[in-house]
Amino acid sequence: MNGKQNKVLQFFKKLGPGLVTGASDDDPSGIATYSQAGAKFGINTLWTALITFPLMAAVQEMCARIGLVTSQGLASNIRNHYPKWVMYVMILFTFPATILNIGADIAGMGAVANLLIPAIPSYYFTVGFTVALMVLIIYLPYQKIAAVLKYLCAFLLLYLIVPFLSKQNWSDIAKHTFIPTIRFDKEFISILVAILGTTISPYLFFWQATMVAEDVNHKKRRLVVNKKVITDLDIDVDMGMFFSNVVMFFIILATGTVLYNGGIRQIDTVEQAAKALEPLAGQFSYLLFAFGVMGTGFLAIPVLSGSLSYILSETFKWNGGLDKKFYQAKPFYLVVIFSLLIGLAINYIGISPIKALIYTAILYGVTSPVLIAVILHIGNNKKVMGEFANRKWSNILGFAALILMTISAIMLLYYQFKG
């Protein structure tokens, strides 16, 4: 038994940036998107979890491999190998989208905390969470942040319990998981595009590459990149993306059976999803859902704000990184503070969280195809990647992601401007 436990612990220790990146994808705004899909269309979108997993894994694996081989983040590689305007365009679209994402996540956390403790208004919680996140990100050393983020992933396991608290038709669930349902109308296509934009997001590309590069740079001795190291990297990324998609699947399943079958067809926010579960699936389901939202917020917001800081630091050659003290990397941490404060302010200037999600999806949808194309180009550049350039399946899945995200961006823009 001890031997088996040691093997499990050793396996878990190998997991790092890939697990955190995948788990952070299921943030409160992502939970809101999956809840909308489940409430509005039942289990008709369950199949998307199977489609997005290999595409996410392929793109994130390329980002991780770029960080491993070059010991630099994605922004540094773009700066070194592409015209400056490419990086500036990425910043132009990624920065506001990520800020809006942070704002939506803070709002979601505050709202579910208010549901748990109604006597305290939600704005007290949003301010408190923002301040707590600032303190943790600025004062905790990198190793502690990495460990905390890793163990916060456990909060996502709560969502795997919810569907089992009510009776399920598992044969029908299997059918909708393996046989895609597609309706060519504005609402259904829009939710498919939102799911894609939520799962394959630009900020995750930057975070993945930078965290792997930072791990390499923190090794006490120079890491020799070989097939074993690449294999361990692949396992980390695959497990993270698999974990992310399993959670996505179970959130759609929970809301698509409990809420949809209960006649609740419109969910715009995570607190609505949590509150709606209580009378239909019991208080335990409601509490699990609410605590999950807060836990994932504490996991995702450092990733969101950190990715922005890394993008700007690498682009403008600032001395930055989570391993630095505040006085050693003031611009880096000022971006973190600024992004959190602006995200908080969004909740008080009249932009609703659901509108923030829509704007975020549009900006991500426009940026993702361009960024995936750049990642594919770097991954195939033997001058940069040497013998660890993309293999056949990386390119096949990477180009599939590029095509799918491009079509999604075109459809998203079409439906937004169709009127």
TrEMBL record:
Domain of life where this protein originates: Bacteria
A GO biological process held by the record: iron ion transmembrane transport
InterPro entries linked to this entry: NRAMP_fam
Spans traversing the lipid bilayer: 85-116, 123-142, 148-166, 187-206, 242-263, 284-312, 332-349, 356-376, 396-415
Bilayer topology term: Multi-pass membrane protein
Subcellular location as annotated: Membrane
Annotated GO MF terms: cadmium ion transmembrane transporter activity; manganese ion transmembrane transporter activity; symporter activity
Main location: membrane
Keywords: Membrane, Symport, Transmembrane, Transmembrane helix, Transport
A Pfam family it matches: Nramp
GO CC, alphabetical: plasma membrane
This protein's name: Iron transporter
